[in-house]
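Subgroup meeting minutes
Present: P.N., E.W., G.H.
Scribe: E.W.

1. P.N. recapped why we're keeping a running log of single-chain structure predictions: easier to compare across weeks, and new members can see raw inputs and outputs side by side.
2. G.H. added today's entry (1098 aa).
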Amino acid sequence: MKTFKSFLFIAVLSNVLFFSCVNSKRDLYPEDLIGGFELLSAEKTGIDFNNAIKESNFFNHYFYSQIYVGSGVAIGDINNDGLPDIFFGGNQVIDRLYLNRGNLQFEDITKKSKVAKNSGWSWGVTMADVNNDGYLDIYVSRNGNSLDIEKRRNQLYINNQDLTFTESAISYGLADIGFSTQAVFFDMDNDGDLDMYQVNQPADKKVMLINEIPAKDYEYFRDRIYRNDNGKFKDVSDVVGISRDFGYGLSVSASDFNNDGWTDLYVANDYAEPDFMYYNNGDGTFRNVINEELKHITQLSMGTDTGDINNDGLIDLITTDMTPEDHYRSKTNMASMSEERFNTLFNAGAHRQYMANSLQVNTGLGSFSDIANMAGISNTDWSWASLLVDLDNDGWKDIIISNGIKKDVDNNDYKSVLKNLNKNTTAEKLFQFSKDAPSQPVSNYVFRNKGNLQFEKVAKKWGFDTPSFSSGLAYGDLDNDGDLDVVVNNMEQTAFVYENKATGNFLKINLEGPNKNKFGIGAKAIIYCNGKMQIVENNVTRGFLSSVAHGLFFGLGKETLIERVEVIWPDGKVNVFKNIEANNTLIAKYLKAKIISEKVEKAKTLFSTINAPDIGLNYIHKENDFDDFAEEILLPHKLSTNGPFSSVADVNGDGLEDFFIGGAAEQRGVLYVQIKNGKFEKSKSQPWDKDKSSEDLGLLFLDVDGDGDPDLYVTSGGSEFKQGDKRLKDRLYLNDGNGNFSKDLKAIPAIYESTECVKASDIDKDGDLDLFIGTRLITGKYPFPASSYFLINNNGKFKRSEEIIAKGFNNIGMVTEAVFSDIDKDGDEDLLVVGEWMKIIIFENKNGIFEDNSKKFGISEDSRGLWWSITANDIDNDGDDDYILGNLGRNNKFKATKEHPFKVYANDFDNNGTNDVILAKYYKGDYVPMRGKECTTQQMPYVSEKFKDYHSFAASTLIDILPKEKVKDAVVYEINNFESIILINEDGILKRQVLPIQAQVSPIKGSIVDDFNADGYKDILVIGNHYGVEVETTRYDAGFGSLLLGDGQNNFKFLPPTSSGLHIPKDSRSVHQIKINKKNTLIITNNNDSLVLLKKNL
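Output recorded in log:
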């Protein structure tokens, strides 16, 4: 956040021009908000462009691997008649320019306009006023397989203002001769003119194999920035901070991500080279922040776009990859991700790359959270373009994605045939193989934004589901009726022109920019309407190889009046309009804009961070290196990275709270003692050093021996050690009253289980504290149920309870957390237990006997989840405990519904002595495995013998794949919901209530309740992530903590991190309150990371 912000000067109404939209038929008061499209015929529009590819013996994907990439489409008004025109890029066919004659009818003026003067393989197309004459010019990025510089020299068609153009790339300094993808024109230095970023590639991999590329030519293959110096463009790439590595870039977006008034860039790179996220330094240079701002990225990045999907005033980001949504296509066309390759790329600085689309939501604090899985848009097949745009005029930006590739050249069975070809295979034979490659046109995608970070797939409903091989797409109001029409460049099919049939209201803003940027590129507008806001940026290069119509468009739904419109220019000047009626077009003139700078006090957040080392807390958790997937290849996630946890108590009786934090295997836990002035020092007593070979998990300070001081119980867990390993024995350390601890070797029975949870209560009512010990897992037997137990305290010595006390503890499951709570207010503490693949279980305490009476308290039979945590607190202050339960969350690929649950099967299916884990999803009437043939074969080698090809595996159900007799004996669980919830206690009956969507972006590992904003009502703070996943699952890293403000009526509202100050983008595990200098402070533990401390500012 900047301390100084450009403030808005209100232009007087006499200086504002506005006029009604051309279409007077749009109803200002629509009865229903309807979205949808009509696909117009070529006969109707006059647009018959078809980017057809003619292959031959020496021109097919064996000689040019990017032959099926396609080309782009640009929309813009080339003759300033108010009607957007259309330019199509062609590969073998010539580029085409269509003039809009009105009524959605177009005239092909390619020949007379002279925009196809020079042949070449066109990829990216964009319209921009390069020479500042008020008319749009056309820039074409050339690629292809030719080594002839003239055939791949980029083209700049300068508009002659008479529907003709003159190619002038050389004279303007923009005749780039790299293998170019796309260009974006933007003002990199806020000097008022347009500069340009050019995405380039090395020569196609097949081209480089066939031809010898001169070493001197490689310098042309890097991305370039051209700075506009008085109308001429100068290559300044080597001095502005952009990468000089080679990348197979496919798209670029220009946007102000960090809201500092300077345009940033995002470049999507295919193959191994990571994407670039360039933040503008404000001095004409850039820095790549991809590793710092994004927790992970797409691997095979293709299309990208920016926009505000949740109307919080921050710019979000979408990037598309190529993983199919359809099970059969994914299992036949996608290779397994290699963990070794993944880690090699990451260790080489290429980030964490996953083969899935990403939808990165801007936190406003410099980081982003990928919610693509939660939004349901993560897998959309071979996805080229992606656009964030309001298609149904309801005020929310929808998502549109172009899709398809002419030949499924990555089909696994097809590649298997090719592997057996010998070196003497002729070109004719290769061409025949090329022709025989599988080919399946697929539907493009549209996702309607429902608000609140939720999307609905509506391609069929909106008439956008015609199968095709689509590439570039763009939008613009082609008929000036107040909604955005869509144009798609297809291969082997006439281009799509979709007429938008939306009924919602709108606002358009046309920009009259300064002399050197007359179309106002880089300007943005913010509108305020009925308590809501929207922001749109005027950057036209978007999606994939394409550019959209200039100007700013807002859908308004049924709103009829916009209270305030702010148009902000790149140099900070502003136009302000007030009380604008819907269905109008505003003209914002730069000459009328003004600027006033005022000092703005930064809003105080509820929390601020304490630098832990500053107060003596220099602890860093160091996770030991262990491969959970070595024997159980198909595990969904690691089980060895569940720590660290902490516990708080005044161990030395000085009135100051101290705390202990556990260590990983081979790492010592540490007791920190608070001293004066709110600082800490390591206690001189650290007897647990001798037990560092164990993994510390659940911790509890409690008075075991009744001497009035807190002793320490530490559970020993993890998946590194087999059942029975002595390192799995829990430990008890007794306090001498002065904070000096010693290990009691005889206090705990010799039980060698992997435990994670310890909770205390006087179970037998003899005046001392007994323990519940939750066993987390049986090593090598995921998800087989483990048995938990009570330890009964007898004068400071513990013994395992009789089975009759809690019969339900046998094979209870993979316990993660539990809580003692008097749920029925009968004067004794009952026990609530949750765990991975477990139901929510309530053990009612009946005179010291604990019975599973979950149903009695309102818990349904289908409550099974991947539960990580449970917290008890009287949230609504009605005198009984309510409960916060942390589940996996909704931001995962394992979709589950009541009708079609998500399942797990586990057994030694191939009789080789190892446990086999099969995750299964519903598909076309049956269940199929989540994982593919390769990794399933690695776990169970018989699979490759039973299924000789990928087709047969992909076409088989789970029961076809697994031995039937083994399925009968398998552990089988199913989950129908991954949402984290609150259980509201209403007279002993627990009512399920879902936590707000922002709390569903990651697993909740811990939660705490307090009145954080001092309004008299209790609030909820949650933390959590889980980084340790197998490489085909996008890791759970979208969480940064959520503060949910309560209103006393069990309603909770998410407070953004810009207001809360809660921003912990780490692999968090637990949260506790500790008094430091007599003030409550939050202490958050993080796996393989340092501590985070937050103090309240109220």
